[in-house]
Amino acid sequence: MDTDLRWESIFSQGKTICYRSGQPMLLKGSPKGNVLRVVEGWALATDPHPDGTRTFLELRGRGQLLGETSALSGELRNADVTAVCRTVVQVVGHERFLAGLGCNDVLVGMLLDAQQLHKTANVRAGLRRFGVASGLSRLLLDLARTAGVPLVAGIPQKVLADVLGVTPRTLYGAVAELGRRGAISTRWPVVHITDEVVLKELARSDA
């Protein structure tokens, strides 16, 4: 049974909510509550600071969860989450979520594996020492794996630039480089992976 079908055992009885681009989904400091599962679109998690700046934490997409950390810990939400584009989620209360996990060891294992993947993706996105083209390649591979298809749709250039910690102009140069190498083609806000082998080679390079 695939991941989506396994999570359906918990989320099938929940409600479906559609968020518009830029709409807040979860707020840092709010009490634990619903757990969301992304069906379509992308959600951006950030850590807001008193001076108005924000630290990027991660992007989550199809099949991934939001709000599960506070549900498990019982603590307040630890991040702001905003819809990057039109984003559809399934929603259940934290009681239902925990009850479903409690009787399903497979789902518990999947949740732990997913959290490790989130951590790995975040580290990859934030590492500048690999170079912007390499960092972008790693990020696109991670996002495409989440999407389940060889393309990344709906994420604006500015968001990708913020994820990588670069200016939009610098991101544009990296996108152009990947395009020249034949790894991707772009028609914003859609990035098609046209040669995964080349993209993986660039992800491992220092260029």
UniProtKB/TrEMBL annotation:
Domain of life: Bacteria
Domain (Cyclic nucleotide-binding) ranges: 19-97
InterPro entries: cNMP-bd_dom (IPR000595), cNMP-bd_dom_sf (IPR018490), HTH_CRP (IPR012318), RmlC-like_jellyroll (IPR014710), WH_DNA-bd_sf (IPR036390)
Keywords: DNA-binding, Transcription, Transcription regulation
GO molecular function: DNA binding
BP-aspect Gene Ontology terms: regulation of DNA-templated transcription
Gene3D superfamilies: Jelly Rolls
CDD domains, A to Z: CAP_ED
Pfam families: cNMP_binding, HTH_Crp_2
Name listed for the protein in its UniProt record: Crp/Fnr family transcriptional regulator
Lineage: Bacteria, Bacillati, Actinomycetota, Actinomycetes, Kitasatosporales
